Amino acid sequence: MDDYRLTQQLLTGQDPSAMVDVLGCPVHPALVAPFEALCDDAARAGFDLKIVSGFRGFERQLAIWNAKASGRRQLLDSGGRELCFEQLTEAELLESILRWSALPGASRHHWGSDIDVYDAAAVPAGYAVQLSPQEVDDGGPFTALHDWLDHQLANGAGYGFFRPYAHDRGGIAPERWHLSYAPLAARCESGLSVARLRNVLSDADMLLKDAVLAQLDEVYQRYVAVPKEAYPSAYAALLAEGEWG
Ligand SMILES: [Zn+2]
């Protein structure tokens, strides 16, 4: 576990060569075996646990960011209602993007440790997964899978996986579909920092860059940092004290 090489490239989504594509999406090799174990348990419970999104690189996240910042991609308020780009102040625009999309360089998907999952047995073949609250809340096709996962994670049968966005802390919206592999994610989280992120963003061709850099400390605390308490207690100790603390 201590042989992870956490370079700045890996931490900020610029090292796709560190990933493997054996689970249908590129992910860090460290989570392949534990995810397969979780899949086996899920299959015994009647679910076909699949990954719809794993590693996502910096350039992809930057493209999503710039599309939203220029009104070319749908913008939502904190409750998920559509917003009109032309009517937003810069601060409102920034808030609506950060609530639903990670800052380039600061996505947990950059690490290959985090995945978005669904139950392929609950939908017809070819179903386009939306990653919407309607799919995972009461009455949704993936609600049963997530109720089962809640039970497994709460009972120490999660093989290191946990939900970093289970609760609304006022930053990123709750994402029941998003799982994080704690042994790797805790190390990545400890390795990232405001200074590191500032370095990467300063060189990026990113819209709203000046506004983000001017309030990067606040943005980091509210939208990037996942508190120790959200981690399974067995792995929280891997989070280094300090800036992340
Ligand atoms: Zn996700």
3D architecture notes:
The chain is of the alpha+beta class and 245 residues long. The chain has one domain: Muramoyl-pentapeptide Carboxypeptidase, domain 2, CATH 3.30.1380. The protein is 38% helix and 7% strand. It has eleven helices and four strands; from the N terminus they run ααβααβααββααααα. The protein has helices at 8-11, 32-44, 58-69, 90-100, 133-136, 143-154, 182-191, 194-202, 209-214, 216-224, 233-236, and strands spanning 49-53, 114-119, 161-162, 178-181. Strands 1-2-4-3 form a four-stranded antiparallel beta sheet. The longest helix is centred in the N-terminal third of the chain and has 13 residues, at 32-44. The radius of gyration is 18 Å and the shape is globular. Bound molecules: zinc ion. The site of zinc ion has 5 residues, from strand 2.
Q: What structural class do the secondary elements suggest? A: alpha+beta
The major beta sheet can be summarized as: 4 strands, antiparallel
Gross morphology is: globular
- As for the CATH topology, it is Muramoyl-pentapeptide Carboxypeptidase, domain 2
Gap between N and C termini, in Å?
21 Å
Helix percent band: 25-40%
Radius of gyration, CA atoms, in whole angstroms:
18 Å
Counting DSSP E segments of at least 2 residues, the number of strands comes to 4
- The CATH class assignment is Alpha Beta
Mean pLDDT: 92
Distinct small molecules: zinc ion
Uncertain runs with pLDDT below 50, 5 residues or more? none
Q: What's the helix count?
A: 11
Order of helix and strand elements from N to C terminus: HHEHHEHHEEHHHHH
How many domains make up the 3D coordinates? Answer: 1
Using the 3D structure, state the CATH architecture.
2-Layer Sandwich
Tell me the fraction of residues in β-strands, as a range: 5-15%
Please give the order of strands in the largest beta sheet: 1-2-4-3
